[in-house]
Amino acid sequence: MTKSKGLILGSLMSMAMGLFGHNALAQEAANTTALSNPKVLVAYYSWSGNTKEVANAIHKQVGGDLFEIQTEEAYPTDYDETTAQAKKEINEGFRPKLKGSVDNMAQYDVVFIGSPNWWGTIAPAVSSFIESYDLNGKTVIPFITHGGGGEQNTIRDMTAQCKGCNVKSDGWVGYGSRTFGVSGWLEDMGFPEK
Q: Which site among 51, 70, 81, 186 is 20 to 30 Å from 43 CA-CA?
């Protein structure tokens, strides 16, 4: 190979490397921007209003869209009747039909999903919600309310049901409608107060 052919070939390789490197840097910058300013959905199911209060606190800090998961047939207003029905549905793997739907789920990067702890797991309505959408590749951040049962299997079961998701294991778990600490938790998750 002559010296001039070597210089030309070297120049072409340098240009190609420069273009490839530039494209890779541009893609990395685009990904960083998407992660630093993600499109957020806060979705929740709330029978008593506790999970709704936490959802509102999260939404107030992170912005994005808010979606209430609702069943076509409402649960009884009586607590004991609802807990009996929930236990039966969970044991049978029942998935209630839902009212309404999220328009264009594909647009969201991060989906907060809220549920009460019902019999140690997430509410059947939340399971229906998870199964209704393709959440593959999305970051899913659970938030759980409870009346004394704590986390139990809620986050583990949500993770198992959410195929292909990146479910954060350090989701919010709080007693009743208490939101004390939600702001700090969100900051730790990368969502500072605006």
A: 81
